[in-house]
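Record 1 of the preview.
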Amino acid sequence: MDLSASGVYVALGLDLMVSLVLASTEPAAFRHPPETLLEALAGAGSAIVVAYIVGVSGLSPDLPRGSDTEWFLGSVVGLGLGGVLGNGLAVVLHEASEPLSWLAHWGVYWAGASTIFLAVAVAYLPIFAYKKARARHLNHDE
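->
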């Protein structure tokens, strides 16, 4: 299996696992979530997706080649896919007027978990940019 594909599967699996655990442990908490919660998730998710796109597009062209980089890029892509899906779920569920089914209830948790994971990935991108610049500087000095 390609390392980048395994990174995608791990990231999406993490979103899936956390959202399922949360949905099963709090079955009635968000059957009818407040509109402000879903509105906030959709708004925050949109901003985080834009930050993700800008951050990853500036980071990826000069990354060194290797298995660590492939797995990292796969994970970042998986977190991005999960975040975009979660943002879309928040927008769709925001329009729901009835109490949510179990699947939609799980979607609320997916939207929350994926938005948080994507935000953590965006916050961590400067460390990778620093490592990239440091490696380029060290290679240039040699």
